[in-house]
Amino acid sequence: MATSLGTSVITKKLKMEPIPLLVVMISFEPEGEEGRQTCITTKEYWHQQFFGDEGLTLKNYYKEMSGGKFYFSPAPVRGSDTPGVVHVTLPYKHPDLLQKENPDKRTGAALYIVAEALKACEPYVDFQSFDKDGDGYLSQDELNYVLVHAGFDYSGGKTTTDEFRYGVFANSGRLPDGRDAEDFPGAQAPTVGGVKLCAHGSYTLIGEYRNTAYGFLPHPLGTTAHELGHAIGFHDIYDYDRQVKGWPLPMMFSVMCNGCYGLIMPKNSEEKPPIMGTCPAHLDPMQKIRSGFVESTPVDTDGIYSLYSIKSGKYNVLRINTPDPKEYFLLENRQAEGFDAGLYRRRTVQEEDGTKHTVFENYERGGVLVWHIDEDIFDEFSGIKRTNGSGLWNGDGETQRETRHNPGVVIDYKNGYDENGLMIDDGTWMQGFPADPFYRGGETFHSRDFVSAATHTHSLNSFPDGIDEAKYDLCIEVIEDTGAEIKVKGTQTY
Ligand SMILES: [Zn+2]
């Protein structure tokens, strides 16, 4: 999650073919005890989680998102019977401690370890063989990396134990080309086996373990699915500053928001629930389109169109343009199937003694989601910090603006917002985890029922000259609904 240590990438169309992925487990064994942290998991564990053909694996996740066309394949490695995974031991302190010892060069210290870990892979990996275009650099199309740092990940909290003494915050980014980050010697894109790594492509790093409701457990899939998404060009669409409660967010419905925490609750309530992130939900349709996983079908209103669910094998996204050329609506059919079985809502339960806690409930049934996209906003504010444009960050991610701006990617959840366009908390269903955000057979969506959170305009964030906000409405009627196929009819008036 979180901030990127390196610089950003921009969304671009991916080649719809498998991309090699190298998983590097890193143990830290300096002289002495300070900064020492060694890996506990096995290479087979990561191989199974990332490359396994069965179950909830990274391979199946990206295959499902791309209609089978795109996934990460194990990079060939020498001297390992576990394809795609190597384990290196560095004679250095864990970056957590190295950063504390270099408070003014924290980023440099972390990136130095990234560079050293990649250099340590030289005996195992023929890096030059991946340089398909022969430009001397490995790009995100040629090879990707997940660096599993021994210890834990801060995304589960900063608690330490005798066994888990040091942590990292999962992130994805690039290394400076030809200069050291923060003048930390060696904190730059290394040349390994004749090619430069992580200057034109990105590294992804995670902590090996994560603190969970059941104590420290090996890091589940969701974080890597999210961070590798950055490496191939996806943007965060959560709210970085969290200053306004209920600011509209896609929450569970994109892996680049809370969707990376998806999980499937056991049918039997006596059974222990799995940890968050074992079943990450799909990416939002806007970024699916930008990356090439799916093509949108532009539709004129006044016709009848079918929306197909992911598992139907015919998944599609309908795009309805509006009078503002940069604002449009995307319609998709999201069902509780495949990795979207990990979608959940959260209910607040009050015990007899008055104490409250929240429970996770997977959706039993999905339906139509109506997405409101504002490309101007998304492209202006999804810069280095890659925010959804929901917070106060400006495009360079450093200074704050005085007024908030609308998010570029919003779901118009059914019954999900108050009169100010903020996500509601009705006392039972937690904010951002609505009871039922879907439109189904017999129900009708009206865009005029939705208010933009920053501009307080109805339907759209801005209206071109000559278009009357008071008269504008996009109406979507759901006229037939089998789950796998939902027929809708749209009418746009203005
Ligand atoms: Zn992120």
Mind sketching the topology for me?
Blueprint: E1 19-28, H1 43-51, H2 58-65, E2 72-74, E3 85-90, H3 95-101, H4 106-119, E4 144-153, E5 167-168, E6 171-173, E7 191-192, E8 195-196, E9 203-212, E10 215-218, H5 221-231, H6 285-291, E11 296-298, E12 304-308, E13 317-321, E14 327-334, E15 344-350, E16 356-362, E17 367-374, H7 375-381, E18 409-411, E19 444-446, E20 473-481, E21 485-493
Parallel strand pairs: 1-2, 1-3, 1-4, 4-5, 4-9, 11-13
Antiparallel strand pairs: 6-9, 7-8, 9-10, 12-21, 13-14, 14-17, 15-16, 17-18, 19-20, 20-21
Helix pairs in contact: 3-4
Bound molecules: zinc ion.
Zinc ion (ZN) binds at residues 1, 226, 230, 236.
Verbal overview:
- The radius of gyration is 23 Å and the shape is globular.
- By secondary structure, the chain is an alpha/beta fold.
- The chain folds into 2 domains: 19-231, no CATH class; 251-493, no CATH class.
- 13% of the residues lie in helices and 24% in strands.
- Residues 1-9 and 388-399 have low confidence and may be disordered.
- The strands form 5 sheets. Strands 1, 2, 3, 4, 5, 6, 9 and 10 form an 8-stranded mixed sheet that branches. The chain has a 5-stranded mixed sheet with strand order 11-13-14-17-18.
